[in-house]
Amino acid sequence: MKQVLGCIRRADEKYDLIHDGDNICVGVSGGKDSLLLMYGLKLYQMFSKKKYGLCAVMLDLGIVEQDTSGIEAFAREHDIDFEVRPTDIGDVVFNIRKEKNPCAMCAKMRRGALNDIAVSKGCNIVALGHNREDVLETFLLSLFFEARLNTFAPVTYLGRTGITVIRPLVFFPEKDAIAASRRLNLPVIPANCPVAGSTKREDMRLLLRDFRKIVPDVENRLMKAIVDTHKYGMWDRMKLPPRMTGGVRMPECDPLALDNTGYDE
Description:
Elements: H1 2-15, E1 23-28, H2 32-47, E2 53-60, H3 69-77, E3 81-86, H4 89-96, H5 102-120, E4 125-127, H6 132-145, E5 155-158, E6 163-166, H7 174-183, H8 200-214, H9 218-227, E7 244-245, E8 248-249
Parallel strand pairs: 1-2, 1-4, 2-3, 4-6
Antiparallel strand pairs: 5-6, 7-8
Helix pairs in contact: 1-2, 2-7, 4-5, 6-8
């Protein structure tokens, strides 16, 4: 857990995720990352100088029956306030709405339900277990399918609910999460989504794997590009020449026009 705690501490110190008096609700999916986060924040609570409350909530989407007894026992063992809340999200998405691309609506409904539960439990923070590869996959999804440079942030304030969403594991590599969950024998349960493993996100995961064949440390390089915002070199930061020289108006040029230098070949 030293690696997990190290990544939580790094994210907390860099982005000021947690403050004294916060009450944190961890969103638990039953996967390795959310269980690592739940356990990691419990340990961080013991070692950090910051004093905060902690609970964990798992949403039952009502799709397939899941055995959560292992997670419940793990939470009791480590004195973590944990509960499973039933919802009709699965029924709405797959049966009532019959969404052809269900991920976006399901994610939106899960976020809304989790935030409402957090408020009802007196929490001002919702913590999600997205790891480093989740950051990069979301970046690639936005780039290729939305034509924009974007990914989720380590901390986001939601003004409507007063909830702040934090992601303390954004620097934690996927491979280390897999290894840690195995070493700790975490009670991971299978995903309860019928489209798990066949989404565009899975395609981005495979694409990252292909990138790795060309650039062995591609994940680290991409994360540096995202984190080091002072190094951005996009067109909104172009250094443009002055439009007036010696009182004479400089001619306007079309930035998209190609010259005949051969650089476009």
